Amino acid sequence: MNNLAVCYKNGEGIEKNLEKAFYWYQKTAENGVKVTQFNLATLYLDGERTEKNLEMSIYWYQKVAENDYVEAQFNLATLYLDGERTEKNLEMSIYWFQKAAENKKNIDNNHGENLRIRIGHLIDKITLTMRFMLEPEKKIYNACNECHKRRRSLRKYNQICIVCYQANLLNKPSGNKIIDEFVKYTQINFVQESSRMKFFPYNQFKNIEFINEGGFSRVYKVIWKNGPPYWNEEKEDFEYREYNITVALKQLKGSKNITFRELNEVYCFNLINDIAF
Length: 277
Prior knowledge:
Elements: H1 2-10, H2 18-30, H3 34-46, H4 54-65, H5 70-82, H6 90-102, H7 113-130, H8 162-170, H9 177-189, E1 205-213, E2 217-224, E3 229-232, E4 237-240, E5 245-252, H10 260-275
Antiparallel strand pairs: 1-2, 2-5, 3-4
Helix pairs in contact: 1-2, 2-3, 3-4, 4-5, 5-6, 6-7, 8-9
């Protein structure tokens, strides 16, 4: 049936008929042919030879992705990460990127070797970056009284997880409720220390020197008086080790009335640039 769909699509030995081609693609997909299920999902996504139908596209991508079809896993992960054609869902994106990474050796041989290598390399980079973003839960821990997630607690106080405790220590209100909520969200949900946003008052910086201006922001060279906080595992507290260090300070344009969504978009934009396709 798949061959018949291809014949109708390309007009090989039969009159070209895209409607019949789509009909046989669908019939073949319903019979469990992976490559046809993937192609059908793509047709629904792009609106090629049928109306765009995101729900059907995700249905077929997911059906074939569950059978370890790497390209479908990769496309699902990208859809959930971009959030352009469906609701952004970071956890689902991470899940499918990890699945794709586990099965990358199964990338369809129809791809050219260079493309197969590129997709495999890209999956590795994205998975490596994203697995540090969300703090995992483990059933062996008790639920935290604040975030209600099961994560490692403090030795001296086991009712609160170490992530929430660190967030409370670093919590310095900026005076902007939206910024404060966003900073708190990254501190509680992101596992890698460098991914957690922190608020530092402007008086922490000196010798401010303008460097450059771009589409999003102005960049300054400054001296950071106290430097970044470092977690001391033994003391279960933050400490400062690098004083008066030179750093780049970025001032977002129009940030006075910035929304939570815009803050998240700026954060994701910088993350994706770090991943670098």
